[in-house]
Amino acid sequence: MKVSSGISALVAALVIGGIGGIWGGLATGIFASKAINSAGANGLIYGNINLVGIQLIAIVAIIAYSAIMTFIILKVISIFMSLRVTSEEEMEGLDVSLHGEEAYGGIDI
Predict the structure, then answer these.
(1) Mean pLDDT over residues 88-96, rounded?
(2) In angstroms, what CA-CA distances link 11 with 4, 7, 35, 56, 95?
(3) Where are the transmembrane segments (predicted)?
């Protein structure tokens, strides 16, 4: 994905994890069965469309909560330190500028 679209590895990991989590939530609403979990509820394929709605509300709530909490945490951190490195540090490489060592044994990657 990174090579073809130019998306960084971190963003790609977040997107893939987010999509997987959203699908897991929706799939629960679609495929849930009381035959597997008698304390639960049936999903869409067993005639209960309400569970999909509940799962969608939960997904939206989780996304909103995560975005708000991330914003708050980053704002608090930015009071005490910069959230970005300088362009010089970035060009030198963060392994050298932040950790004082070269990654990959000096091999140019």
Answers:
(1) 82
(2) 14, 6, 38, 23, 20
(3) 7-32, 52-74
